[in-house]
Design goal:
With 366 residues, the chain is α/β, with parallel strands linked by helices. It has helices at residues 4-7, 36-45, 81-92, 102-105, 113-132, 149-159, 183-191, 221-227, 229-241, 244-247, 263-277, 288-295, 309-318, 348-362; strands at 16-20, 96-99, 138-143, 165-169, 196-199, 253-256, 296-299, 325-326. Strands 1-2-3-4-5-6-7-8 form an eight-stranded parallel beta sheet, sandwiched between helices. α6 packs parallel to α7 (183-191). The protein is globular. The relative contact order is 0.14.
Length: 366
Amino acid sequence: MAVVEEVGNKIGLKYIDCDVHPMINNLQQLYPYIPENWKRRFEFQNIDITSLKLPSRYVHPAGGTSRPDAKPEKGIPGSDPAFAKKQYLDPFKPHKVILNPLQPSAMVSWTNVEAIVTLTSAFNDYYLEEWTEFDQRFTLAMTVAPHDPLQAAAEIRRIGDHPGVSAVFLPLLNTLMGNPYYYPIYEAAIEKDLPIITHVTGQEGSFVGVPALSGGIPRSYTERYVNLIQIAQSNLSSIVFEGLFEKFPSLRVAFVEYGFSWVLPLMWRMDKTWKELRIDTPWVKEFPSEIIKKNIRFTTQPLDEPENLSHLKHMIEMMDGKEFLMFSSDYPHWDNDMPTRVLNNLDKETKQKIFYDNAADFYRLS
């Protein structure tokens, strides 16, 4: 089997990767970006990176969510920008990669709001200095703490103009995205011309206050993994039927790492229901499918590949996916989709839009 560096991007594919995960090895890496009083408190509490780990309720069957070959000589996978450059950027040559940090998003299950806000800001400053300044192909989806929308908005205004910031990563509470609770965050993102992205945090269905999975508690990692699309489905319906884009027409939203094969039947159901019951939501003035295509984007990973790949191509055509899908790899995770190995049977125009044009427009990347 050829190693990744030998495979590379020999076809010269121009693309933007909308989902790469940087990590830290220990909390001490954040200390230069934390006020002294908070640093002393965290030291006194003996809080370390293990406090940010995914819940042990759903341990990955292989013991971890990252590719074993993505582990640098020192540290955990995703913790070394130089290693990521050598293993991924140099051989595959993405135009840009969006960094979506999962460790700060995992704090969505914490309850000490001031501690969360302090650490989230430190994560943002760390990744801007250690990753985006290391290689300008790295660009950051800055994380905000959803527990306090006003402080989240202040964080967007603090660093939203930084050239290394391309989006706002909003980890979700058990409050749907169409709820006015999030309005201060949306207003600040619009002010800075930044899109809102939301992504799986690893906490879903595990703690009170985070998004719950419907029907009950999954009993295995696999069962929970499959059911995570419920979170995106519920929030997509909320955004549309709350009329979020009537209130914020310039807001841009993306669902990252939820796949997209579920979007087509949901659009069908939303269109049919809206047409029959539109008096229930008179503020929704267009077909939901049209609202979605204009304002919302979905990343491709994890790609649901049918046995006959032509069916996937037909599904993308049926949903007009070339207008709102964006490529994502999920490097360095176990289920990543490498850019030269997926969606190879698309026509040239569709491939250009999904791999580059849609993300370049959404993230304002040139």
